[in-house]
Each structure stands twice: as C-alpha cells, then as structure tokens.
Amino acid sequence: MTQIRKICHNLQPEIDSCIEYLLSNCNVKYNHTGVKGYISDVRKGAAKIDGRFTVPLWAYNKKYPEQDKKHNESFSAYFTYYVAHELAHILRHNTYGLVGSHDFRYYEIFINLCPKHLQFFELDYIKTAGEYGVGK
C-alpha cells in the first residue's frame, strides 16, 4: 500500500463530513466500504484502488463566494466538488471493478454524487464531461 504524504490531520473531520454529506444526499446507494479521504498538501488529488483518495489543500482553501453562498455548507463549494470527483473514481472501482478514466460509468456515479449546482466545475476540468450529461 503506497503511503499518502503530507496529510493535513487537523482537517480530517472536514473531509469525513463532506464524504458523509455526499453519500447521504446521493439518490443511489453505492458500495463505499473502505473509503477514506485525506486532505494533503500536494499539487493534485488522486484516487487509489484500495479505497483511499486525496484532495489537495489548495482545493480545500479555494473559495468561490457566489457558489459558496448557494452551497450553504460548512465546507466550500469547490472542495465539495473535488471530493465528489475523487470519490466517484473510488465508487466506480467498487461498483464495476474498473480503474481509471472518465467514462460513462464514472459520470453516471459523479452525476448522482455531486450536487447539481457544483457540477459545472467538472466542465472546466474535463471538457467532454457535458457529453455524459454533466451539468444538465
């Protein structure tokens, strides 16, 4: 098992709460056994096939005042989106046994998991996400 580096242990309750928020508001129940997220002081997030994933500290700190106001949660809109993005990779693996890409199975999960008002962030990241129904 590869070690996750530069974990921000003081922020663990934040990511745990965000994961719970996303899973409890999802209209589909996915196998989330063994899922564990971490906020890390790294350049980009990553999802591991063992159920662990990271979200970078900069994503936790990133603010979009207009979206944060609409989102109305204790954690920021962008952070919530980023957690949903990485969590969707883990759930795709748990559900289909697949690793990797942003395909229709990934987006099927992402659309169910990520609040609709935050899905537009994905369109900035993956330009073809709209072809899979993101943001519609």
SSE order, one letter for each helix or strand: HEEEHHHHH
**Overall pLDDT level:** 88
Radius of gyration, rounded? 14 Å
CA-CA gap between termini:
38 Å
Question: What proportion of the residues is helical, as a percent range?
Answer: 40-55%
- Outline the low-pLDDT stretches: none
Structure description:
With 136 residues, this protein is mainly alpha-helical. Helices cover 46% and strands 9% of the residues. It contains six helices and three strands, in the order H-E-E-E-H-H-H-H-H. It has helices at residues 12-25, 57-61, 65-71, 77-96, 104-113, 120-125; strands spanning 36-40, 46-47, 52-56. It has a three-stranded mixed sheet. Strand 2 and strand 3 (52-56) form a beta hairpin. Helix 1 (12-25) crosses helix 4 (77-96) and helix 4 packs across helix 5. The longest helix is centred in the middle third of the chain and has 20 residues, at 77-96. The model has no long low-confidence stretch (mean pLDDT 88).
List keywords for this structure.
three-stranded mixed sheet; 136 residues; 9% strand; mainly alpha
Strand and helix map with partners:
Elements (H helix, E strand, L loop, with lengths): L11 H14 L10 E5 L5 E2 L4 E5 H5 L3 H7 L5 H20 L7 H10 L6 H6 L11
Parallel strand pairs: 1-3
Antiparallel strand pairs: 2-3
Helix pairs in contact: 1-4, 4-5
Q: What's the gist of this structure?
A:
With 136 residues, this protein is mainly α. Helices cover 46% and strands 9% of the residues.
